[in-house]
Amino acid sequence: MRAAVEALAAALRGGLDPDADPPRSVVPVRRGQLLLMPAEWGRYAGVKLATVAPANPGRGLARIQGQYLLLDAETLTPLDVLDGVALTSVRTAAVSAVAVDALAEPAAARLVVFGSGPQARSHVEALRAVRPVSDVVVVGRDQERARVLAAEVGARVGSPSDVAGADLVACCTTAREPLFDGALLAPHATVVAVGSHEPDAREVDAETVRRSTVVVESRETALREAGDVVQAVSAGACEPGELLGLAAVVRGEAKATPDAPRLFKSVGMAWEDLVIAARAYEEGS
């Protein structure tokens, strides 16, 4: 995880432009969606084919499945095929950690995680890699799954009101409506929301967006796919021009407003998969 965080941050500092990513292709099918995510950066190109099947957890299968094909950028020769589920799990949490490392208070120690699946688990690991997280609260709809995750990561089970005392909040769910009241957030809190890439779904409310410095991977992509942002803009809680790009924040070209919460809204982009797939390939070669 630490290597993934470092690879993403280094790529952004090195000039990678998230806005150069082609739009994600989303094809509805009978039982879910097919996602196609191509990208190119430096010596590599690649494409992820992922599937989203909402009914799969009830069958004992992963909700998201897929494969990643890594290519040589000069010749477009295939170099490697990676497990798309494992790659997505790492890259989503790693990009959140890049944002938290750039935005959160250095001493941030108390983390509230919404969700009890693979992304929640990965986010605990990733945020512990960049901040001295010592107190973790898990909030989940399924109490048994929440208890299992809490036992695995050394946490306790809590409720949405626990965000009032949180330094960090990670929203890692399939929720389509806000998970907590944004008025509860402390002025120093940093929130990451990663659960959706659909404009009609959101994990945080308009109050969270209104109070916060909002950072996104790409302004254009967020205004197209990030329901947390799209709906807040529609409600007048945020202006599109107020959104900060992650690359600018990592490079020190843009800064959060002092004494106000910080929100990083991620939809997951192809450049993130490519950077981490390339690092994995190089480390395995």
UniProtKB/TrEMBL annotation:
One of its GO terms (cellular component) is cytoplasm. It holds the Pfam family OCD_Mu_crystall. This is Ornithine cyclodeaminase family protein.
